[in-house]
Amino acid sequence: MPTAMRFLLLGLFLLPLTAPAALIKEPVEYQDGDTTLRGYLVYDEALPHKRPGILIAHEWWGLNDFVRERAERLADLGYVTFALDMYGDGRVTEHSNEASAWMQQMTANQEAWRHRALLGLEILKRHPMVDAERIAAIGFCFGGGTVMQLAYAGADLDGVVSFHGPLTPAANTKPGDIKASILVAHGEDDSFVPSEQIAVFKAALDAAQADWQMIIYGGARHAFTNPNADSYGIDNVRYDPLAAKRSWALMRVFLDEVFTP
């Protein structure tokens, strides 16, 4: 066999056995009354079958590039992902005073907070490539609190993951109310969440007989998953690449577990 032909055949054997991801990235408009919400949907069109869906709730900054990148990373893993818009009109800021005001306006009314999150969940569930029986939600900072509210509301979710969330305790939940398994990734040096609140948070989950686990990363501060955290100039907000890597890997294991029959 000629040498050139041998190299050609060798090259064919070395080609990847699966096609590279062909991500579809779609802006999605939906309504909450008079408020237009602008989410971000991502999935791999090369996968022909239905697959689990992941709802993603943003930090208090809004649906920014960090959250979009997380949606794309999860879509690369084979999920359909939908990053919801909790503020409306796709509002994004880098100013903490503005972000704080938007977040407080949203969280002041628990019913409205949960309702808006549930609207995003319905968008994800209705997508034709989503297996509506396998849905999870993840959130960062304010978004961690948002996905916990979904869990507290008894949303039909297999799991929720809170990354450096506020750990607001469940209230008025009874055994069986929380259907989702819960993973909490928290920084030991996150001074935004006092130890007393963590204790109440855990006790409330126990009282509801929830399936939960909490992993605490030594030395990690608030927003430890966000590579842009240091640029905001806020005390106690810092990116921690090791905690970010470990918590993402743990989330992947958790998702595999909750989606396995």
Automatic annotation (TrEMBL):
Listed transmembrane segments: none
SUPFAM superfamilies linked: alpha/beta-Hydrolases
Coiled-coil residue spans: none
Swiss-Prot/TrEMBL keywords: Hydrolase, Signal
Entry keyword Signal: yes
Molecular-function annotations in GO: hydrolase activity
Record keyword Repeat present: no
Top-level division of the source organism's lineage: Bacteria
Domain Dienelactone hydrolase: 38-258
Pfam families per the UniProt record, alphabetical: DLH (PF01738)
Annotated signal peptide: 1-21
Listed InterPro entries: AB_hydrolase_fold, Dienelactn_hydro, FrsA_esterase
UniProt protein name: Dienelactone hydrolase-like enzyme
Lineage: Bacteria, Pseudomonadati, Pseudomonadota, Gammaproteobacteria, Chromatiales
